[in-house]
């Protein structure tokens, strides 16, 4: 059986491309307020392993609807023959440039596509739409009307009254704000258009859910990898004299900072690609957290932990390590190990709160002296980096594929966007410790960390 | 599954040139989704052996080490049992190498085997891991093995070598007792009585006594074979009982067999099982495995268009603006009703001889009739929020034939005093300007 197809049609500039872009999660659709941007119909198939489950067509808007309707009405035929007349029109005007847009939009419908007629309910209803709706009635295909809201005005009631004459199914969908639930709801409505399409569309709903999960998993893995690479990263600088100069130290710190910034940007680009927001990659280098540098105090205060939280987290983590020593001596240490570990961890975290960079002079004995910075020992830094990455990913997850404006992250009045529970902080700290270690984190542990991030993202 | 499989998988994953789609296609072609993960990986490995694998010298190194251990064992036996005929061979030396040292090393290995986290740092395995890092380059899968697997592997290799050493020792021992008539005796600086030594040996023999009772040395033999370092010659008592001293060999053979070989074999088996367990875990945790399994098992879902977007080029044009004009021959309203037009003309103070509604649901014939009546200048009101269609352009084209000037006036909503949004007017201006109409003006 052939897969279901749907043609998204309507008056020019009513948000057809935005709807297709949001429904297909494709940000490559050209969206413009200049009428006639979509010139050629374009297919957006939902494919699974190369098999098409359903297909959406973005089409040009009606340009000469009354002229077309006039042509159709010249043929007095019974209702069952009306579609044949439309086919005849397409056949006769195939090469007529005057009806290029109409042919483009009618072709998929005549090939069996369901009709999704898009209107903009932020503009008042007007009689000029009637010719378009009448033509669609002539096509005799399952159809539904989709009410879009490009602006803030609301004329939904009058639109619903008018659309009710032509369509049995009317739904509201705002591609700029719609989330995954609304997307699913529209697919369910589309499934009702034709009994034969129900199975495919129900399958596609399940697939979209899976796709969503896949994207989340890949994003969380990218974040986990970013954290592991960044924290473990080491930057070296050969020095000539016995002791490093301030300039050499500064140079190394700058290189280190820039490298870490690059790693963050690279991961953000990857996340944007995973979430099908590739167009953002052109601007993303400059824009995310535009005025909040990764190493700024502002970034630490918005995305990092507070001193108190860090003290509790690092003390608990230290105590856990100390408890290992107690266990080794079967508690004969009077749990002194846990107490000392807790104090060392807590004090370490507290004292190093402000200090991000610590350089080491290495190779003194073998004559080849070099300065090294990293792995990152600041205990708050992983939380800052993670906080930023989570915030960025969640913003992007809710950023409509139909939006073409610049992606700007607002930090919610500079308040912390993520509150990590104490138990989550403890879990995270365990992995951060591994990332800071000489050996770094192993694949298995990294996967566990990615699973934890996935929970936070969900 | 062995370590070579693990290393091969690591290497293949590091150097696999296929993309996500190809991996999924491979899984679908061979129906791999039904198989357990481990089998999927093994199947994938088998079918990707065309990737040039870099051979690790691990196998050769292991074999060389085993050979060296065997030779060392054999040589140790020869050295320990070297008999000149002048002095008996002190069995204590042999006990130390064949029983005591194996027992101590087995004891530590057992701890190392069952409490790796607590004991690993204390053992030489850590140093051996570091040694491995010196031999193999950083990117070698051997170095990148999970530390637990590396640890278990080293422990297993150590047991293998210890066993080969013991076998060499035992074979050396057998070779010597077959080829020489060795007189065994015992001697120690520490004052140990023959009774205590007998009890000690009796305890050691608990494991093999039931199977080989004649291997246990008697108290009498122990007493007679006790010798002291002083004196130029062997005591006459020893010389009289020289034939007896050869009896020790059974005990030495059985204790070597049990303590150095059998117990080591058991430990080797235990370390092998532990190593296999770690290997199995590590096999599924090899860097890149999760990605490969995900690629093979997750369906490739795509929602995006395959063809490129084709859009018409847009150019910036501008229309001549109309200055204030008080009277028009006709006031036309595109998709406006007559009532709406009357309200507009009243509100905007527009004076016209004729007021007509065009566009909207007017038929083309009705529209043609209106165009036929037109002359002089015409003011055409449009809804600024609606974009101009080609139907509107056609209408202007027809209207131009009968009029001297057409002024298009895009209006906003009535509730906003017909004030249009600037961006809406820009769209109208841009669209109409593309047509290069000579008589058309825009009123802003």
Characteristics of this structure?
heterodimer, A: 458 residues, Rossmann fold, 15 helices, B: 444 residues, alpha/beta, 2 domains, two-stranded parallel sheet, 18 helices, rod-shaped
Give an overview of the whole structure:
The complex is a heterodimer of chains A (458) and B (444). Chain A is built from 15 helices and nine strands. Chain A is an alpha/beta fold and 458 residues long. Chain A has two domains: 5-193, P-loop containing nucleotide triphosphate hydrolases (Rossmann fold, 3-Layer(aba) Sandwich), CATH 3.40.50.300; 211-457, no CATH class. In chain A, the strands form two sheets. Chain A has a six-stranded mixed beta sheet with strand order 2-3-1-4-5-6, sandwiched between helices. In chain A, strands 7-9-8 form a three-stranded antiparallel beta sheet, with helices on one face. In chain A, a hairpin with a 2-residue loop joins strand 2 and strand 3. Chain A is elongated and about 100 Å long. Chain A starts with a strand and ends with a helix. The mean pLDDT of chain A is 82. Chain B is an alpha/beta fold. Chain B folds into two domains: 3-297, no CATH class; 327-442, Rossmann fold (3-Layer(aba) Sandwich), CATH 3.40.50. In chain B, 55% of the residues lie in helices and 9% in strands. Chain B has helices at residues 3-15, 20-29, 37-46, 58-80, 91-114, 116-119, 124-135, 147-179, 194-204, 219-224, 236-240, 242-245, 248-285, 289-297, 338-348, 364-373, 390-400, 422-433, and strands at 89-90, 184-185, 301-302, 327-334, 351-358, 377-383, 405-411, 440-442. In chain B, strands 5-4-6-7-8 form a five-stranded parallel beta sheet, with helices on both faces. Chain B has a two-stranded parallel sheet with strand order 1-2. The two termini of chain B are 81 Å apart. The interface between A and B is large, with 57 and 48 residues. Strand 2 (42-48) of chain A pairs antiparallel with strand 3 of chain B, so a sheet runs across the interface.
């Amino acid at each position: 059986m052939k897969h279901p197809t749907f043609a998204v049609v309507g008056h020019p500039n009513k948000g057809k491309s935005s709807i297709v872009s949001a429904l297909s999660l494709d940000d490559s659709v050209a969206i413009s307020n200049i009428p006639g941007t979509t010139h050629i119909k374009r297919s957006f198939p939902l494919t699974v392993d190369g098999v098409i489950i359903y297909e959406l067509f973005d089409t040009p808007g009606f340009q000469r609807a009354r002229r077309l309707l006039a042509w159709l009405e010249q043929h007095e035929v019974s209702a069952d023959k009306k579609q044949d007349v439309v086919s005849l029109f397409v056949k006769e005007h195939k090469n007529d440039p005057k009806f290029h847009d109409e042919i483009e939009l009618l072709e998929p419908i005549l090939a069996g596509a369901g009709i999704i007629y898009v209107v903009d309910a932020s503009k008042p209803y007007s009689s000029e739409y009637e010719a378009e709706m009448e033509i669609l009635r002539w096509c005799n295909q399952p159809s539904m009307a989709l009410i879009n809201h490009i602006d803030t005005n609301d004329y939904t009631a009058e639109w619903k009254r008018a659309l009710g004459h032509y369509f049995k199914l009317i739904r509201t969908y705002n591609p700029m704000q719609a989330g995954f639930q609304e997307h699913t709801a529209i697919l369910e409505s589309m499934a009702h258009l034709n009994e034969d399409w129900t199975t495919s569309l129900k399958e596609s709903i399940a697939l979209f859910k899976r796709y969503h999960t896949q994207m989340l998993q890949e994003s969380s893995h990218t974040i986990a990898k970013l954290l592991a690479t960044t924290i473990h990263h080491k930057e070296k600088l050969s020095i000539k004299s016995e002791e490093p100069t301030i300039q050499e130290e500064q140079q190394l710190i700058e290189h280190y900072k820039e490298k870490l910034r690059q790693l963050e940007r690279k991961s953000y680009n990857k996340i944007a690609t995973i979430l099908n927001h590739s167009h953002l990659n052109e601007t993303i280098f400059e824009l995310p957290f535009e005025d909040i540098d990764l190493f700024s105090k502002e970034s630490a205060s918005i995305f990092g932990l507070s001193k108190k939280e860090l003290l509790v987290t690092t003390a608990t983590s230290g105590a856990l390590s100390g408890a290992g020593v107690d266990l080794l001596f079967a508690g004969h240490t009077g749990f002194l190990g846990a107490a000392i570990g807790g104090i060392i961890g807590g004090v370490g975290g507290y004292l190093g709160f402000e200090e991000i960079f610590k350089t080491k002079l290495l190779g003194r004995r073998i004559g080849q002296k070099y300065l090294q910075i990293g792995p990152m020992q600041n205990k708050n830094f992983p939380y800052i980096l993670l906080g930023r990455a989570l915030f960025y990913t969640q913003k992007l997850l809710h950023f409509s594929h139909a939006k073409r404006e610049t992606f700007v992250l607002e930090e919610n009045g500079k308040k912390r966007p993520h509150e990590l529970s104490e138990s989550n902080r403890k879990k995270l700290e365990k992995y951060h410790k591994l990332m800071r270690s000489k050996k770094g984190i192993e694949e298995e542990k990294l996967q566990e960390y990615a699973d934890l991030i996935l929970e936070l993202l969900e | 599954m062995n370590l070579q499989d693990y290393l091969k998988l690591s290497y293949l994953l590091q150097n696999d040139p296929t993309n996500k789609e190809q991996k999924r296609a491979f899984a679908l072609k061979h129906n791999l989704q039904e198989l357990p993960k481990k089998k999927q990986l093994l199947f994938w490995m088998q079918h990707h052996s065309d990737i040039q694998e870099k051979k690790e010298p691990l196998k050769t190194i292991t074999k060389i080490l085993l050979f060296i251990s065997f030779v060392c064992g054999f040589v140790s036996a020869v050295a320990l049992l070297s008999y000149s005929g002048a002095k008996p061979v002190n069995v204590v030396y042999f006990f130390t190498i064949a029983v005591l040292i194996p027992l101590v090393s087995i004891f530590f290995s057992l701890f190392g085997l069952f409490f790796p986290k607590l004991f690993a740092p204390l053992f030489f395995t850590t140093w051996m891991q570091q040694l491995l890092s010196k031999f193999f380059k950083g990117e070698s899968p051997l170095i990148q093995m999970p530390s637990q697997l590396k640890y278990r592997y080293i422990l297993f290799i150590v047991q293998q070598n210890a066993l080969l050493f013991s076998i060499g020792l035992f074979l050396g021992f057998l070779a010597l007792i077959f080829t020489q008539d060795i007189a065994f005796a015992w001697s120690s600086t520490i004052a140990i009585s023959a009774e205590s030594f007998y009890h000690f040996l009796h305890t050691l023999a608990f494991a093999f006594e039931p199977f080989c009772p004649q291997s246990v040395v008697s108290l009498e033999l122990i007493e007679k074979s006790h010798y002291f370092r002083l004196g130029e010659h062997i005591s006459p008592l020893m010389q009289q009982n020289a034939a007896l001293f050869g009896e020790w060999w059974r005990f030495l053979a059985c204790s070597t067999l049990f303590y150095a070989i059998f117990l080591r074999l058991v430990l080797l088996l235990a370390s092998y099982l532990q190593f296999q367990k770690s290997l199995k875990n590590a096999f599924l945790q090899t860097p890149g495995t999760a990605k490969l399994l995900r690629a093979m098992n997750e369906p490739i879902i795509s929602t995006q268009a395959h063809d490129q977007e084709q859009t018409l080029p847009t150019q910036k044009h501008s229309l001549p603006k109309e200055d204030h004009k008080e009277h028009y021959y006709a006031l036309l309203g595109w998709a406006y009703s007559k009532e709406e037009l009357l309200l507009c003309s009243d509100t905007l103070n527009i004076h016209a001889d004729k007021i007509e509604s065009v566009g909207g649901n007017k038929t083309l014939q009705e529209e043609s009739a209106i165009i036929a009546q037109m002359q002089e200048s015409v003011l055409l009101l449009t809804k600024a929020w609606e974009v101009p269609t080609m139907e509107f352009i056609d209408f202007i084209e027809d209207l131009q034939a009968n009029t001297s000037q057409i002024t298009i006036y895009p209006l906003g909503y009535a509730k906003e005093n017909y004030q249009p949004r600037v961006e809406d007017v820009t769209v109208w201006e841009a669209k109409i300007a593309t047509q290069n109409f000579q008589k058309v003006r825009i009123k802003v």
